[in-house]
Design goal:
With about 120 residues, the protein is an all-alpha fold. The chain is built from 2 helices and no strands. The radius of gyration is 43 Å and the shape is rod-shaped. It starts with a helix and ends with a helix.
């Protein structure tokens, strides 16, 4: 019996119940331990629920940020395609201007030789 009371005292110490004296008796000590264990279980359940809701909120935030990033990547790809198209167009226009100037120069030289 003494060992069991010692076990109850150790268990109450671990659970954070105030020191249970021998005067309270076995029933009072076990009731206090059961109440404290229920409190701890409720607190743990609340903490787990809170953690689950935080994890869910963080997953939703991550999903939203990923969608925003995908949208920005898509926009950058479109800009890159347009930029490449503009570079090609600029190159073609410069080539046309060069050819046109060369032809004009050639025509001018031909006319000059013709009239000289």
């Amino acid at each position: 019996m003494f060992q069991f009371l010692r076990f109850i005292e150790l268990l109450s110490g671990v659970l954070g119940v105030d020191c249970v004296s021998a005067d309270v008796g076995l029933d009072g000590a076990s009731d206090a331990i059961f109440v404290r264990a229920e409190q701890l279980a409720k607190n743990e359940a609340a903490a787990v629920t809170d953690q689950k809701s935080q994890i869910y909120a963080l997953k939703r935030k991550l999903k939203t940020m990923k969608e925003q990033l995908d949208g920005k990547v898509w926009i950058l790809e479109v800009f890159l395609k347009h930029s490449v198209a503009l570079c090609i167009l600029t190159f073609v226009l410069l080539l046309i201007c060069y050819v046109t100037n060369s032809l004009n120069r050639f025509a001018f030289q031909k006319l000059r030789k013709h009239y000289d």
